[in-house]
């Protein structure tokens, strides 16, 4: 059959439900960069008969419809549905959070597969992967074992163990979805941490598209113990947009409940598209640049001598331009690095002109054990705050370390700040002892406040007494 896959536009129906409409397997395969894929749907079957119809789109020249395989698996009526089963659903995403891919043969008899969540995580905040393969998962009555296999609850992803860092960022995932549909979102939760067994040790908030959908969830308080799973179902409407839409799922520690650990945890997630009032589940084909349009000619894979010659000339010209660009970038990079080193050398030479004691970075690292977290005292506006003693333990100080890269113009402001401290002195103001400006580190050393800060004296006076 002398046809190309880009010509295959088909519509698939299951009874009164439209599963796919004007669907092009070629475009979808190119979009996900995979030679094969599958689509999973959940429909309610009446009278023990399922009618599946594949039909090519009639307005496509030379169009045809095809399918490589069909699997039909029965499932419990209450697995995902609540109430009557008038809606069909399409599985959009099913992930095993913090663990490996779970293949269909490891499911609870329904051939469901679960992907790793790493490709859905937003940014570089991957959190911490947790696993407890020796866990004895105990399914409660309200969570039957067929809800999810044990492998989902044996692994999880949490934010981490450093509260000062955890309270400043979210654990976030993004999931691409089709617009103009309602979605069912199921989150699987099970606390497998060995050091958490009591209520209010870990409580966190769940956000979907920047809206709080559950605040202060405490898994131990809901399950009464470790290794006991639960799940939460939420529905959300994606507005009528032209392009595909990303759904944001975020977890953040709940600060109001003041738990023992400022952390959050998730074991798994499932997202389903719910059919609309017309029984439609069909979405749009992905748009790919440089791909043939729906009504365009079939892509040509033949070549001629003139085309080959033209391509060869273009390749030679392109290679030459890339070489010139690479040399130019190399020259610029060398000049930039030399200029930056010269600027830092000039700035280091100004150390002797500053009026306070200058500490070496080696001295700072030695006093606080190379920035050991055990010496971390607080997080201030300037950066991280460490407490230690200098001069053989005779002087108590706080060391403020800037943890972000400081712009070049701010180094001048840094020097001005030190000079201002030299001229502004008062017995009720904390005194600046010295500074460190080496190895791209910017550090201020202040005298310690043995009687606590003004804020603590005002707000925690009763506790101190």
From TrEMBL:
Residue ranges of domain Protein kinase in the record: 371-465
UniProt-listed InterPro entries: ANXUR1/2-like (IPR045272), Kinase-like_dom_sf (IPR011009), Malectin-like_Carb-bd_dom (IPR024788), Prot_kinase_dom (IPR000719), Ser-Thr/Tyr_kinase_cat_dom (IPR001245)
Keyword check for Glycoprotein: yes
Main location group: membrane
Protein name (record): Receptor-like protein kinase FERONIA
Transmembrane segments: 312-337
Top-rank lineage group of the source organism: Eukaryota
Compartment(s) where it occurs, according to its Swiss-Prot or TrEMBL record: Membrane
GO cellular component, one term: membrane
Protein source organism: Gossypium hirsutum
UniProt membrane topology term: Single-pass type I membrane protein
Keywords per UniProt: ATP-binding, Glycoprotein, Kinase, Membrane, Nucleotide-binding, Serine/threonine-protein kinase, Signal, Transferase, Transmembrane, Transmembrane helix
A molecular function GO annotation: protein serine/threonine kinase activity
Alphabetical list of Pfam families matching this protein: Malectin_like (PF12819), PK_Tyr_Ser-Thr (PF07714)
UniProt entry tagged with the keyword Signal: yes
């Amino acid at each position: 059959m002398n046809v190309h896959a880009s010509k295959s536009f088909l519509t698939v129906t299951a009874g009164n439900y439209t599963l796919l409409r004007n669907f092009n397997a070629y475009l979808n395969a190119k979009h996900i960069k995979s030679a094969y894929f599958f689509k999973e749907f959940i429909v309610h079957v009446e009278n023990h008969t399922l009618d599946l119809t594949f039909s090519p789109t009639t307005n496509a020249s030379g169009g045809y419809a095809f399918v490589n395989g069909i699997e039909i698996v029965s499932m419990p009526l209450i697995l995902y549905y609540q109430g009557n089963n008038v809606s069909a659903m399409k599985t959009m995403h099913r992930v095993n959070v913090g663990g490996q891919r779970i293949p269909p043969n490891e499911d609870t008899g329904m051939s469901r597969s679960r992907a790793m969540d790493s490709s859905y995580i937003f940014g570089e905040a991957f959190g911490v992967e947790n696993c407890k393969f020796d866990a004895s998962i105990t399914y409660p009555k309200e969570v039957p074992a067929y809800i999810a296999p044990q492998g989902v609850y044996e692994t999880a992803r949490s934010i981490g163990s450093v509260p000062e860092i955890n309270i400043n960022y979210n654990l976030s995932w993004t999931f691409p979805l089709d617009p103009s549909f309602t979605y069912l979102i199921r989150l699987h939760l099970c606390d497998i941490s060995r050091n958490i067994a009591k209520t209010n040790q870990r409580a966190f908030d769940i956000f979907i598209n920047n809206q709080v959908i559950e605040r202060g969830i405490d898994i131990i308080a809901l399950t009464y113990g470790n290794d006991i799973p639960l799940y939460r179902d939420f529905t959300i409407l994606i507005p009528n947009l032209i392009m595909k839409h990303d759904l944001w799922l975020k977890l953040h520690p709940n600060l109001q409940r003041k738990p023992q650990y400022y952390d959050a945890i998730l074991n798994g997630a499932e997202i389903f598209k719910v059919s609309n009032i017309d029984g439609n589940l069909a979405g749009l084909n992905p748009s790919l640049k440089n791909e043939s349009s729906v009504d365009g000619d079939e892509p040509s894979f033949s070549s001629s001598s003139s085309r080959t010659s033209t391509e060869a000339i273009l390749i030679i010209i392109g290679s030459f331009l890339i070489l010139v660009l690479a040399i130019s970038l190399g020259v610029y990079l060398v000049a930039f690095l030399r200029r930056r080193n010269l600027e830092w050398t000039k700035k280091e030479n100004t150390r002797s002109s500053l009026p306070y004691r200058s500490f070496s970075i080696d001295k700072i690292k030695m006093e606080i054990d190379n920035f050991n977290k055990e010496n971390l005292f607080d997080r201030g506006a300037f950066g991280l705050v460490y407490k230690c003693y200098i001069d053989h333990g005779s002087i108590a100080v706080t060391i403020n370390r800037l943890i972000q890269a400081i712009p070049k113009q701010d180094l001048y402001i840094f020097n001005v700040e030190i000079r201002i401290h030299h001229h502004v002195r008062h017995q009720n103001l904390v005194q600046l002892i010295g500074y460190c400006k080496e190895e791209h580190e910017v550090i201020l050393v202040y005298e310690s406040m043995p009687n606590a800060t003004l804020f603590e004296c005002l707000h925690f006076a009763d506790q101190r007494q």
